[in-house]
TrEMBL record:
Similarity field: Belongs to the EFR3 family.
Species per Swiss-Prot/TrEMBL record: Buteo japonicus
Pfam families: EFR3_ARM
Taxonomic classification: Eukaryota, Metazoa, Chordata, Craniata, Vertebrata
Name recorded for this polypeptide: Uncharacterized protein
BP term (GO), one: protein localization to plasma membrane
Amino acid sequence: MPTDAELSGVCGCCGALRPRYKRLVDNIFPEDPEDGLVKTNMEKLTFYALSAPEKLDRIGAYLSERLIRDVSRHRYGYVCIAMEALDQLLMACHCQSINLFVESFLKMVAKLLESEKPNLQILGTNSFVKFANIEEDTPSYHRSYDFFVSRFSEMCHSSHDDLDIRTKPGLSVVYLKRPGA
């Protein structure tokens, strides 16, 4: 089965026609998800995002698109890589242009929390906690966190059959702090 990178262009010359941010995002994903995030390519993506902060929203939207596709295809290794990349971008770019990126980030966290898979819920919870601990220069009060409060409350009262999953950190207790507070 061809990889996403191979499907991005019909022929070898079409790959160069894709926007640079998409090529950089595609390059952080290895052929085999077991290999994890391609660190050198992640460094290139981070440098690009810091150099061109106006592209951060597009990078986030494209990563979101990939994550949603991978969740629906049950390609959880790639989901973990996408969230790791998002977390790294969030930490690196939070000062100058976080508001451009946050909507895509929160959309992906919500997608993970909606999953029936406890490991994806934990991944989303951990990412949200990292986000909540970031100090924003200018807090954005237009964001709504109602979904997250509701979902975390449900997770705190989980009645999952497996006791280990029910008491696993990240699912049993979520410490909510208003982001930017």
